[in-house]
Amino acid sequence: MAVNQATEGYELPCKRNLDQVWERLDAVGEGLADEHELTCPHCRTARESLLALHEATKELVAEAEQPPPDLVGRIMSAVRAEVRRGQMLSLPTSEPGTVEVSEQAVAVVLRFAADAVDGVRARRCRVRTVGVGEAGESLVEVELTLAMSMGNASGGEALAQVRARVSAAAAARVGLRLVGLDLVVDDIYEVE
To answer: Which CATH class is domain 85-189?
Structure first.
């Protein structure tokens, strides 16, 4: 029986194969060792290490460890988070390989940029990939739903600021190119 593929064919300095030492553990333990096994320091050291591994494995198998009671709940939370994460967007990189970010993460950054404008609160942000640019970056369309304060007399200026900040955040903070940005004001709130 081979210990594993990594050790298969591993030869000790005494020219014995580690698999041979593993296979003969029980025989040596029962006093059936040959002359080499009795005198070789390399085989003895390997055998001691393999015996320690064998004992540790037996202890792990013998343990009657019960899974934590909330294990299923934790697994399902991870599954739900993965589903909410949405599609992955490719980001440009100067290094080989790819970098991806979830639509959900991009939406958080864009909502934060919109919230930075006085008298505006970002509500929902929908990010949708519509293609890939020349540099390998995702081309996206964004629909951002906003609420504006009732006292915001310059609504047009505030929306222009939102458009500028969201566009800048998409390019500078995330590395995406916006090809469309729809701003929808669906609520008005009172300033306390």
So the answer is: alpha beta
